[in-house]
Each structure stands twice: as structure tokens, then as C-alpha cells.
Design a protein that fits this description.
With 945 residues, the protein is an alpha+beta fold. The chain folds into five domains: 148 residues, no CATH class; 67 residues, no CATH class; 129 residues, GAF domain (Beta-Lactamase); 183 residues, Hypothetical protein af1432 (Orthogonal Bundle); 146 residues, no CATH class. The protein contains 28 helices and 23 strands. Strands 1, 2, 3, 4, 5, 6, 7, 8 and 9 form a nine-stranded antiparallel beta sheet that branches. The protein has a five-stranded antiparallel beta sheet with strand order 11-10-14-13-12, with helices on both faces. A five-stranded antiparallel beta sheet has the order 17-16-15-19-18, sandwiched between helices. Strand 4 and strand 5 form a beta hairpin. The chain starts with 22 loop residues before the first helix and ends in a 17-residue tail after the last helix.
Length: 945
Amino acid sequence: MLFTKPPHQRTLPDGHQPGQISLAVVIASAITLAMLTLTVVLISQSFRGMEQAKITAAEAMAGQLATSVDDRIHAVTQPPATALTALRHDPLAGAANLDQRLDRLQPVAEVLNTSDIINAIYAGYGNGDFFLLRDLAHEDSERFADAPPDSRYLLQSVERSGQQVRGTWLFYDQALNLLRRQDLPDYRFDPRQRPWYQQAQQQDTMQLSSPYTFFTTRQTGLTLAWKAAGLPETVLGIDVTVTDLGAKLSELKQTPGSRIAIVNRTGEVLASSEDQSDSLPGPLIRQALAQPTQQVQNADFGQRDWYTITADLSSLPDEQLTIAIAIPADELLADVWDALTRQTLIAIAIAGLLLVVGWLLGRQVGKPLTQLTDRVSRLSRFRFDTPVRSDSHIREASELSIALDDMAHTIRSFQNISTTLNRGQDLNELLKEVLEQIISILGQRRGAVYLFSRQARQLDLAVNQQMQLPETLDDIGPDCEDSELIRRLRISIDGHPVFSVLRNRENQLIGVLVVEMELGRQTDLSDDLIVFVNEIAGSAAVAIETRELIESQQALLEGIIRLVANAIDAKSPYTGGHCERVPKLAQMLVEKAESSTDAPFADFAMSEQERYEFHLAAWLHDCGKITTPEFVVDKSVKLETIHNRLHEIRTRFEVLYRDTQIHYLQSRLAGQEAETAADQRDRVLNELQQDFAFLAQCNQGTEAMSDEDIERIRRIGERTWQRHFSDRLGLSEDERQAVEGIPEPELPVTERLLADKPDHLRAWGAHVPPVDRNDPANRWGFDMELPDNAYNHGELHNLCIRRGTLNPEERFRIQEHIVQTICMLDALPLPDRLANVPRLAGTHHERMDGQGYPCKLTGEEMGTVERIMAVADVFEALTAVDRPYKRGKTLSESLQLMAGMVENGHLDREVFKLFVHSGAYREYADKHMKPRQIDTVDESRFMNL
């Protein structure tokens, strides 16, 4: 049988009886209703009080504003009045013509310079002459746009002689040097018709005009005028600008929409807080002037309510100036309405708060746990930056929130350690951040990290945070046990520290973590605490080991780079030390560019990452030479390959020499006269000697070849000789492939003394360099002319080289080392921070005029460091003394050649000038050049490149 509750005992799902009302709701509703009633009364009274206070403040503000403007007008007029008192006694007043008046130009200019507000000083004479000096430094440049450059003063002069009127403008510089004299026939200004002259004539005292618009500059200002002492027909005047009164009025506005204006007795606006188009409207001015001063009145204008108020200005009593103020009613009472709105919102908020206070009392126990449940759920979603602590008067809930907050803080610190390990670059900074996080996890403030030096057998203080510790701990063996090490540390370090010995994956000692336990319950140094510190200290050990591995890898990379560079230098005695000296010179130039304050290097700077990238590129700039055949790099004569093939030609001459002698003997046996046979023999032998000597000289390649020389070589090559032995025996695989498909002639065979044979050519085969711009495999932008053959060992082809010892195929091989440099470096798995190494290493043979190689870049397409590399490479090549085929040049010779290369568009002009004027060339010479090469350099020869 089932039993159920009677209907009157049934409860709702939340445990409440149906029809019941919570006491918290009743109390909250009653308090809220009473609070709302009281709030309505207080808010209405407060609004009326604040409204009246605003109006009273506006009345007081009008009086203060009038005083401020009076002070400003007095400040404007007082200094010019003093200056005018002195000027009325100046001889300028009695000067009869322009020349006499120009004698007083210096003192007038000095008076003009005494104040920034004096616009002009002038004198009006009884005959209509006029003399005015204006300071152009305070004028609108557009109004005097035709003034000469460096103009400081403008002298405006009018001279009258009978019916003739001569107007003249003279422009002067700061030192009163005349820049230009300009006659203006239309400039017929008559001072006698101006109000300031007429008023001064009527009174014996200084006259101050009301603000008006000046005749020439169209600015607003005042004029101070006074008759000259002893010369009543001459009036001296000073114009004072008051254009800043509008700005002053704008600063004194009580609200953004307020309008302030200074008006005269007729209502004309003399100055306004706004521009002329948005000045105080006329109807408001008239209504404001009609009411008593310093009394606020309401006014309607433009579908808006205004408050208007006026105040009299006492600074110019004769002008009866008044300051009129109009304030939009909505802006004046904006603070009142804002306060009313805030009070209403506060009242609503309080009502809502009181409404739920009953619920808060009933759920005081459950709410903290609900909050903790919500925040712990955020932790489960990995939101460890969410504060977990919840303030509560319930002790258990408060302690639980503290424990959970500490746990979230610890997890967040572990996250920060992980982030630091992933992003840290510098070992010291990385250790510092890891130490701070570990100290934070333990709730302490001080700590340190020692690093172990295996070579010195000591612990060195690497990071220290507010601890008094020895810098080193000596005589620490790598096999020292943890317990012994900690014992020694406790002897050397006072306080309550906890130590954690840091070891790497091979259990080798790498350092020690020290944390001073001075806060909380951790000071008891429990075993659990020590175990915990040892566990979290593993992150510091990982940081140390990781950075040491990175630094070791970087050192290995540096070593390999230097190994490659040294191997290239060692490969050929002709370039020994080149790969080492160029980086040093390039780095020296980069430092000079960074320290330069002159254009175009004033803004040049490199980060540490960019500097390291450039350092690697400089060391690897010729790494492609490792692929260049040694016989090409070392080729010192034209016929040299693996050996100097001139010796083969000498052997042929020897054959011809003996053939000539044999022919002589045979002729004698045949009965030819001895003298005739001997003459023929001697002539041929002499020709052979001369021809071989000529070929040997051409083989040197030290002089340019003329067309006649080339023709003689070809004529010598036409001689023939008899070969009786097969040239197909004992061939290498390369030589065999070269003659494959060419039938061997029957022996004996007649051959030319010099020849370009088919087997002298070596085809590219499958190894064609991708240097053609249209080659699909050319993804580097190379743009070089590719020879038809990889090599051409033809004897005529090489002997007829016009300059030097390299034929076009070999010259391409030399230039191809840059192509190989870029391809080799591009194939390396370089990190992003070193992505520019291939380009930086492969552009030092480009030219400013775009005629360089391998990409024909122009100067605009190359950066500063790339241009620096080109200068460094050229200078080192010119001054190197370890190349047997040439003598290292002196400083002056090298710089002169480089100057020519600048003029020819090879080297960058600005980098070369920096190289010379910074003294970098001499610093390099002192370290790397022979004393005989260091001569005196006249740097002035290169100043105007």
C-alpha cells in the first residue's frame, strides 16, 4: 500500500510550502518602498538647490570673466604705452625725408622687438608722409607671400612732394640688411585721414583706440597714438594685436556650447570665443544688453533655451565695452540632470539591493559554496587566471577559497615557467624569470641560482634576488654528492634557505637553486617542502640545460662556418685569409654606420639578431668557392689548367727546331751549298726562338693584347709539325669522353703548331647552372650570361685572351661561386631569424648601376649592409698581400681605384665616403696590412665624390 502526504502538506520541488511568502521578501519590499519615497523627496529638493547654485555660479563667473578680460587688455596696452612714451622724444619725429628716417631704423627695430604683441611702430607727419616698421615674424606668411626669404622687417613709407606721392616698401633681414626695395605707385596711404591721427591731434595725452581691423594686415588690434614732443603735427603710433582675446574667451567658456563676446555700445562684436560665422547672435546680444548687468535671465533663440548675463569692462571706460555671455540651458543644467539621473539610478539600485537582502540572509551559507563551485569549474576548463578566492564570514568557506586560489596561482606560475622556457633567449634573463616564478609558487620573496663551472670547479652566482650571498663557492667537484654540497652551502649561507641541487638528464651537476624561506609556515623546512622544492626546481635545470644546448649548437655552427671559411682560404694560396678578413672589415664598417649621425646613416641601426645574421653571412660570403676548380682560381697564366700547357707547345717548338736541323743536314747530303743551307737553317731557328718567346710573353697575360698581337698568334699557329704517336692512348675518362665520336686520323698526321681542337671543349651536360633569367629552375633571380661550354681549353682561344689570364668560360666559373654560395646557403635548413643569410652573403659582387652579378641588382634594390659587404670585399682584395699573382696595393692606391669604381657605378658612394671619413680604412690597415702599404692618404681628394 502506498502512502502519500495530504494535500495541505505537499511542498514545491524547492521545499517551500505553496502560498507562503518569504519574510526576506516582505522586509525587503517594505524597506524598498520607504526608501523610494524618501529618495523622491530628497531628489526633488536637491534638483532645485543645484539649479539655483548653477545660476548663482554663472553670475559670479561673469564678474570674474570681466576682471580677467580687463587684466588681459591692461597687459596688452601697458608695455606699448611705455614704449610710445620714449618714442615721442625720438629724432624720428622730426625727420624730413626717408633717408633721415632710415637713420632711426635700428632704435625703432629694438623697440619693436621688446614685445611679442607689438605689431608695428609708425609715424604720421603733417604733410601726409608716413613711416611704418612692421615685424613680419608675427604676421601671417600668406599675407606677405611675396616677401624675400629671410625677411624679418617690412618698412612701409609714403612721401609726398606737392601732388606727387611715392609709396615704397623695404624688406630687411634680422640684422637690418636691406633685402629688396619695392616701389608701389598705388600705395597712397594718408595717415591724416586715420582716426588715430585725428584723435591724437585733438588731445595732448596718449590716445588708446577701441579694437578695430588694421589697414594692411586685416588683424584685430588696438592703436596707441601720441603727438611728438615739440612737433604737434607729427603723431607716433603703435599697433597692438589683440587676436588672442578670442582664444582667451574660448578658454573661459563654462560649457562647450557657451558663447562669449565683447561688444561696444552699439552692439558690434569686437572679440568672440567663436569664429565670426558662429559668434554670439545679434538677438541674444540685444536682449543681454537690455537687462541689468550680472543678472541671469532666460532667453529663447533658435529653438533652444539660453541663460544670458552681461558685465561691464573697466579697462577702456571711454569705449563702454561690455562682455556678454550666453549659456545653453541644457548645458548649464547638464550636471544637475546627470546628478538627478545618478541619484535615481542609485535609488533604484538600493531598492533592488534591499529587495534581495532577504534572499541573501537566507542563502548566506550556500552562496560562497556556489561561487566556489563556479570558479572551480573554470579551473577545470583551464582558466587558471580566474581568481578563486571568495570573501565570506564563514570560516570553512573562506579557508577553502584561499586554498583553491593558491592552487590556481601555483598552476598559473607553472604555466608561466613553461612559457618562459619556450620563449626565453638569454640564459640569465630566462633564469631570472624562472626564479621569480618558483619564488612566487613558494610564496616567498628572495632567492638565487648558482651555475656550476666544470673547468673552474666552482659555483658562480648567476641570478640573485635580494639575497646576501657569496659570488663564488670554490673547490666544488663534479662528483660531489647532494648532501655534501648542501652541507657546504648551509655553512656559507645564513638564514632559513632551502636548497635544490640542479642536475641534467645525465645526472651531471649544473647548478643550485636557493630560496629563502621567511614567510608563512614554510619556515619549518619540512621534508615535504624540500621534496616539493626539488620537484619544481627541475624547471630551472631544464632551462639551464636547454640554453646550454642551444649555445653549444650555436658555437658548433660558428665553428663549422669558420672551418668552411678557413678551408676555402687554405684551398688556394691566392686567397688565403680573405674569408677571415672581409667579415672583420665589414663588421667594422657596420659599427661606423651605426654610430654615424650624418645622412644617410643617421637612422641606420641593427638589432642583435640582424647583427648575428650579418656576421654569419660575412663569414660565408665566398663559401661557393669550394665548388670552383682550383686550377681556375689559381690560374696565373693563360695556358694553365692543372699544369702550364706552354711546356707542350715548347716541346713542339723543340720538334720543329730539330726538324730544321735535320732538314739542314739532309740538304747538305743532297749537295746544297753549305752557306745557303746554313742561312735557311739559321733564319728558321731564329724565327722559332722569337715566336716562342712571343707566345711565352703572351701567356703571362700581364699586358693587353692588340689586334696585331692576336693576328701574329694565329699566324704562328698555322705552322705544322708531324705527330707519329697516337693521342688516344693513356687517356683519362674525361679525355676519352671528349674525343668520343671523333675518328682518329692515320699516323703520321700533320698538325698545326697551335690549335682549338674539339676535344678541348667540355660540355655542360646535365649540370647546367640555372643562371638564365628565363630558366624555370632559377628561383633565385639570377641573371647571368651562360657560356656555350663549361670549359674551353683551346690553345688559340686562351692565348688570344685580350686582358688577364681568364677566358670567358673560366671567368664565368669564377663568378659562379656567388651562384653556388646562394644555392648552398639556401639549401641549409636555416631558422627564420637567419633567413636573409643567403642574400646578404651573395650580393657583394652586385653593382650600383645594375651591371654586377649574379642578379644584376641596382643600388636601390640593395640594403646598406649589402653595399657595405661590396666595399669590404673590394678593399680586402686590393690590399691583400698573400696572392702570388699580384702585389698588395697601398692605401692611397686602393682608395684611388675604389673612388674610380664609385664614379663608374660599381661601389656605393655614401658607404665609400663613410669608409674613408670614419677612418675605418686606417684601423683595418693597422691590424691587417704590411707597413710598406700604409702610406699617407689625402682624404680631401674623396670629399666631393
